[in-house]
Design goal:
By secondary structure, the chain is mainly α. The chain contains 2 helices and no strands. Helix 1 packs antiparallel against helix 2. The longest helix has 10 residues.
Length: about 25
């Protein structure tokens, strides 16, 4: 799953997606 997909999920209200982004960077 790409960062863009995770960011889109986060914007859509998925708190786990943001956590995954933070772990990667």
């Amino acid at each position: 799953m790409g960062d863009e997909t995770l960011l889109r999920r986060h914007v859509g209200g998925d708190p786990e997606a943001f956590g995954e982004l933070v772990r990667r960077h």
